[in-house]
Amino acid sequence: MDRDVALLEACGRRAFLRGVGALAALTVLPSHAADIPVRIGLTPVFLDDQMGFLSQWRRWLEVKLGRTVVFVQRGSYREIMDLLRAGKLDFAWVCGYPYVRHRQELKLVAVPLWRGEPCYQSYFIVPADDPRTGTLAELRGKVFAYSDPDSNSGYLYPRYLLTTQGENPDNFFSRSFFTWAHRKVVEAVGIALADGGAVDGYVWETLAELHPDLTRATRVIERSPPLAYPPFVARSDIPAVELAGFRGVLLDMAADPEGMDLLLRLDGFIPGKSELFDEIARMAARVRNP
Amino acid sequence: MRTLADLSLRWKIPLRVVAAVLGTALAVTVALVARDYDIVRQNLEGHARSMGRVLAHTLVMPVLHDDIWRAYEILQSAHEPNPAAPELQALVVLVTDADYRVFVSTRPRAFPIGTSAAAPGGAYGLLRAELSRGSPADQRILEPGDSPLFFIMTPLIADGIALGHVILAYARPALLPRFLGQVGRAAWVTLVVLLILLPVSWVWARRTAQPLLRLAGAMKQIPLELEAARLADLPRSDDEIGQLGEAFRRMVAEMQVKPEMERQMLSSERLAAIGRLTAGIAHEINNPLTGMLTAINTFQRHGGDPQRTERTLSLLQRGLTQIRNTVSALLVEAKVEDRFFAPEDIDDLVILVEAEAHAQAVRIVVDGRIAEPVPLPATLLRQIVLNLLLNAVAAGEGGTVRLNAYTSPQQLMLAVFNDGAHIEQRDMAYLFEPFATGRETGHGLGLWIVYQITRQLNGEIAVESEPGATTFTIEIPYGKS
Fold first, then answer.
1. Where are the bilayer-spanning segments (chain B) (predicted)?
2. Of the listed ranges A15-19, B135-139, B217-221, the one predicted with least confidence
3. Which residue of B has its CA nearest to A188?
4. pLDDT tens-digit map of B237-254
5. Is B299 helix (H, G, I), strand (E, B) or coil?
6. In this complex, is the C-beta atom of B103 within 8 Å of any C-beta atom belonging to chain A?
7. Selected residues 114-143 of chain B with any CB under 8 Å from a CB in chain A
8. CB contacts < 8 Å between A and B, how many?
9. Closest CA to B180 of B22, B30, B20, B23
10. How much is the pLDDT for A157?
11. Whether residues B151 and B291 fall in one domain
């Protein structure tokens, strides 16, 4: 909590500075616009399927960065990770799980704050018309929906939990499938295509506000302990100036009224530390070597 | 009860127009519904078949990769409602694996992943049996008889291997709502048409019926108010109604003059009857006169011994009595009491016609005669026989006339034969009509009188005539009164 208060104070101070910076950025925009654009990879760790929101955010970032911004979206986390590691992207918003597997190749840019913490939870959900199921363990032999094989909340955590319970996650369910997005896990469970699913708690909560009809069809049966929030990362060879510039824009988002709107219920970004993700690394290791 | 046939034309015509419009509307509606149903059905089938093929093609990869969600999203896109043609939306899209287990469906609750697609039962159970029949590579349309659904089953084929099937279930196009919709539309159109046609047909009916109604009204005035009927305002046109009116006017005019004509006809009829009567009497007086004059002539020539005198006077007396009786027949009140027909009358009759027979060189033979008087009026029988003998004499120049008179019980039989000219067949029908004569000198009254008298005496007359043999036979009953 102390950190949060300090952060808020820092935000207030930085907001003023960013205001000045934004003005400066506006004036230099034309000359920079001809530059190579900033390529930012996006994954369904947040609601990346809202095109109106994305174009608004992109314009905002362009103004803040003074550069053209290109958002790159792919069907899975892995494709974004591959592009990032190949240097085809400058930054990407990825999940903690792929981050911990490739941390030595990446640079941590910023970690979002969700309800004041750089953490979120994994939710296990079942169809709302299933009143009995209370734990993941009760879904044995059922159909289960994962979001993405590179998702922490939507794949690693449920498998980790099953592993710690002495189950083999590969044959615990009769069938499992990937929806390649958290939101679609909610949909798949809502229509009972799957008997259960694992979903990013932030996504579920946000959907509960924006599209309550989707979440109302599901019921949360278990919540994970707080896990490090999917971070913004940069390719390893990103120039320090660019890294610092982009990090600065993200960190100041909460202080900007328009940026605040674009945070989609997040409270802002903090620089974060790689150690935040050690717990995820430990879970990954446990699942790999049960 | 008034039937439709009794209704006035002014109602009938609009009613028929309504019936015609309704009948046409009904027929057109039925035809449209049938056609519409066909088109819908064909559209649906075509749409379903192509949808099945596209899905089968698209789903190969997700099925091969076990990508249930991708497959579900593809099904969803195929399953999207189409407000313009709601019947084109599949009720269920089902993807089964090679063992007819559900891979994915648009209704996960009804068809959970991994369960048998036959589990919901009904038609879905039948489909499984159907899958084992026929070529596995063919798209099939199945319509289980007792199911409201029909199915398009398209095999999912990857590299020649059947991975499973895409099954699209559609509701059969519902005939009733479609029919009701069409009927509703038709009803509106019909209503509009009727709203236009009814006043038109009403006016039309009045125009058509008016002359007929006037005609009917005028006809009701017949026969009591002919003048009013004649003055009635009837249609004057050249069509059938006009012709009817014209004929009616003509008829009324003729009916008006009819009583006068009838009176005239009656009068001339009377005159003709008087004429006939007079001619008949003259004829009947004339007949014996000739014979009597001949008898007088003979008496004068040969002088008279008392016997001849007596005979001649007796003959004259009977001849004159016949004339008197004939004349007295006219005088209804002064009926003369006639005597019975006696054997002497036969002799008289032969004498009376002798002169004529001489003139014609005809021989008269009496084959039979009655033995005693017969209780029948002598004058009338003499008239009959005299007429028949004179006719026979006139017919048979140089021949023989035979007279036979005899009685059978209660009946007098008279037969007059001649071997002269016979009566032609065509004349037979008119033989007993007055003034119907076969001879130039005849009046055509003789046989008519014979016929009248015979009928008066309740007798019968028969004629047989062939070349060389003509016989008149008369039977008159007596004694029965």
1. 13-34, 149-171, 186-205
2. A15-19
3. B69
4. 888 888 888 888 888 888
5. helix
6. no
7. 114
8. 33
9. B30
10. 95
11. no
